[in-house]
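Practice problem: predict the structure.
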Amino acid sequence: MNKVILMGRLTRDPEVRYSQGENALAIARYTLAVDRRNTRGSGDDNTADFINCVAFGRSGEFAEKYFRKGTKLVVTGRIQTGSYTNKDGVKVYTTEVVVEDQEFAESKGSSNDSGFSGGNSYQRPEPSGADTGRGVCFDKGCIRRNPATFARSTVEGSFEQTCRAVGWCSGQ
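Answer:
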């Protein structure tokens, strides 16, 4: 079984490219700084591992739209290794996590309390529809008060489908 679960902060905004062709596919690449547990009890040696991640399709589009440097995420996926020959003729080996699921690990407001100066620069759009108290309708769907649930549900389906299916709001 090849399964990875990571929690960490983005080291920079995701880099997103789109595949060529009629049905362009979003490919988002980002790096998570994951704290390494100190198992030897040797003091305050805070170290981190920097894990390269790649998200495809709707997950990539979601990363492009909502993820910013400093955002704390929980990512699940699988490890994939590969290699290529660079311009100098040297073979380079790669290891990355292919993202299967990605969620916010904290609410927007709490990221500033963590002491990380990067912060989360996502700005919520202005509402254009009705607020039922469970979520706010927007042109492209619903943002629920729990961003982790919103992240998971919008990756699985369209904004409009999510909004109507779970009854967060009346839709438009």
